[in-house]
Amino acid sequence: MTDHPLTPDTKAKLEQVSVATLATALYKRGLRNQVIQDVHPLSQKGKNMVGPAFTLRYMPAREDRNQLVEFRNPEHPQRKAIETCPPGHVFVMDSRKSAYAASAGDILITRLMMRGGAGVVTDGGFRDAMNIAKLDMPAYHSRPSSPTNLTTNEAIDINVPIGCGDAPVFPGDIVVGDDDSIIIVPAHLADEIADEAIEMTAYEDFALEQVKNGAAIIGLYPATQEESLEKFAAWRKANGR
């Protein structure tokens, strides 16, 4: 687990910025593979999902170990993970980038929500996806998947480093999802990335407003002309940004 807990201030900032902006801030630091690939929101919530990662790792199922009777075991890692994911955390599953069989269904994900989960992410698929889409809690997957996870996956490890959609996820890393996609912010960078992203977002909002008013991109985005910076300073003052 991380020694860098998510502070309320940093969480509030990360709720206000886009995954795209965060990706650029991480790119500046040489981190180019933090966006989870080929995973999308089941439904748009209009607000960011933010929380520390709590993980589950699946491996290829071996048939003699993955009969339906496994779900009777109270220590089954998938069920146990749902019941132990801390409130405020995002449950992230490594499903081997396969939606051939489901990562979970609506009963388990509803339980996660009722326990205070901040969201759920899989690089596989959910069964009962239409019901999960209606929940208040954000959920992300690659596509709907009806077969039970036992068909091809065995839940094998809880809260260990995983790969999800080709992104490395360490327990406690900060997961941020918007209506486009999800990014993993290394926990030790979260505070400085949040601060920088807030600044970047202010300028992006200013630049977009200028473009809508007919301004050209050159010198404005990025801000290579002193005139753009002067206009931005006045805009910030006028808009309380």
TrEMBL record:
<dbReference type="Pfam" id="PF03737">
    <property type="entry name" value="RraA-like"/>
</dbReference>
<dbReference type="InterPro" id="IPR005493">
    <property type="entry name" value="RraA/RraA-like"/>
</dbReference>
<dbReference type="GO" id="GO:0046872">
    <property type="term" value="F:metal ion binding"/>
</dbReference>
<feature type="binding site">
    <location>
        <begin position="105"/>
        <end position="108"/>
    </location>
    <ligand>
        <name>substrate</name>
    </ligand>
</feature>
<protein>
    <submittedName>
        <fullName>Regulator of RNase E activity RraA</fullName>
    </submittedName>
</protein>
<keyword id="KW-0460">Magnesium</keyword>
<feature type="binding site">
    <location>
        <position position="128"/>
    </location>
    <ligand>
        <name>Mg(2+)</name>
    </ligand>
</feature>
<keyword id="KW-0479">Metal-binding</keyword>
<dbReference type="InterPro" id="IPR036704">
    <property type="entry name" value="RraA/RraA-like_sf"/>
</dbReference>
<feature type="binding site">
    <location>
        <position position="127"/>
    </location>
    <ligand>
        <name>substrate</name>
    </ligand>
</feature>
